[in-house]
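Methods — Computational structure assignment.
A single polypeptide chain was analysed. Its primary sequence is given first, followed by the predicted tertiary structure written as C-alpha cells.
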Amino acid sequence: MAYQEVRTTGYGTRVGNSFKAIGGGIVLFCLGTALLWWNEGRAVKTEKMLEEAGSAYVEMPNPAKKDASLEGELICGTALATTQDSLIDKDFGVGATAIAMRRSVEYYQWVEHAKEKSEDKLGGKEVTTTTYTYTKEWVSRPVESAEFKDPAYQKKNMVLTTVEDDQQYAENVEWGAYKLNESLIHAISSREALDLAIAEDLLKQLDKNTQTAYERFYGVQKNNQPAPEAQQPTAIPDSIKALLPDSVKAQLDSIQAVNDSINKAMEAAQNKKDLAYVHQAGNVLYFGRVPGSPEVGDVRVTFEKVVPAKVTVMAVVDGETFKPFKAKNGKRFQTLVMGKKSGDEIIEAEQEGNNFLKWALRIVGILMVIGGLKGIFGFLEIILKVVPFIAGIFGWGVGLVCTILGVVWSLIVIALAWLFYRPLLGITLLVIAGFLVWVFAFKGKDKLKELAAKAATK
C-alpha cells in the first residue's frame, strides 16, 4: 500500500518563499544567458576547426609502415589496434590480454519513488500530497533505506558485499607501426564478455563472508539445498533391444539422442560454479542464494574486456605515437572510430555531432532563461493565491509573458554572439527578435485585454 505525506503551506509562508525565489531566478537567468553566449562561441570555433581539419588531413595508406614524410601531419588511417599487455583484476584475480578490462556492479535494493500533487485552497494555503511507493530494482549503488519516508520500509536494505566499479587500460596499444595515446585507447569500444576463472579458495572465502552477511540480516538461514541431480536413464542391453519391434527401437533411439544433447549442453557449462551463496557463470559473479530469484541485498558483478579491433584514427603523427590537431583558433581535435571510415565521413559525423550539441544547449539555455524569469516574477501569482481561480488565470498570463520574453531575450543573446563571431547571421536573428517584440508589444495587449474581459464575465 502506498504511503502518503500531506504538507500544508500557509499563505504568508508561500509569499515569503516566492520573494526568496527571486534571487534564484536571477541566478538561473544569468546562467542561461551565459550558457547561450558560450555555446554559440563554442559551436562556431568547433565548426571552423573541423573545416580546417577537413582540408588539412591526409590519408595514411599503410599504417603498418612508418612514414617519415607524415611527421607532424594530420592523418586518417585504418589498422588493427592490438596489445600484448596483461590486465589483472586485483580483487578477484581474473585477467586477460586485452586493451581494457571493466568491472561493473549492481545491487538489488528497495527503491523509493515520490509523486507530488499540489492543490491551492481558498485563502492562499497550499496542500501538497506526496505519495511514496517502493519497488525492488537493480541499481548501481546501494540505497540508504534508513531515509525512506515509510517506516515500514526503513532499514529494509542491505548488501551482501560491497564491490566498486573498476576499469583498467593497457599502456601499450599498437596500431600498425605506431602506438595509440591514452585518449585514443579509451575510445576503443570493442567489448566482449570476460569468462571468469576465479580460484576455488577465493570463491569459498567469498561464499563464507556472504553467508555471514546474509544470516546477520535475515536472522535464520533459509533452506538452500541444491536441486537433485537428474537421473540418467538406464541403458537397455543390446540383447534385449534386439528382441524389440523396430518401432520401439526407433523411439528408444530418439530418446537417447535427446539425452545425448542434454549431456553435451551440461558439458559446455562446466565453467559454471555454484556454491551456497556465490555463483560464477560466464562473465558474471553473483552474490546471493538463487541468481534467478534475487533477494534484497544480492549483488552481481559483470566483467568485460576490450579486444583487438580494426579502428580508424584521425590525429597528428608525433614520432611513434599521435597528438591532437591544433587549429588556428586554438581548438584541438583527435578521434578514433570503430571500423574503417574515410576522413570525410569522420569530419561529417563530427559536424553533425557539433550541430546536435549546439541545438541541445540552445534549448537548455532558453529553458533556463524562461525558468529564471518565472522565478523572478512568480511572486505576482502567489500574491493572488487567496483566490486560486484568479491566480490561475494571472499565472497563465505571467507564464506566457515570461516565455515570450525568455525566447526574445535568448534570440537577442544568440544574435549578439553571432554578431561577434559571424555578423551576417547575427543581423538576421536580430531582425527576427525585433519582429517578435513588435508582435508582443502591439498584438499582445489586445490578447491580454480579451483574457481579462473573459475573466470578469465569469
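Note: Residues 225-232, 264-269 have pLDDT under 50 and may be disordered.
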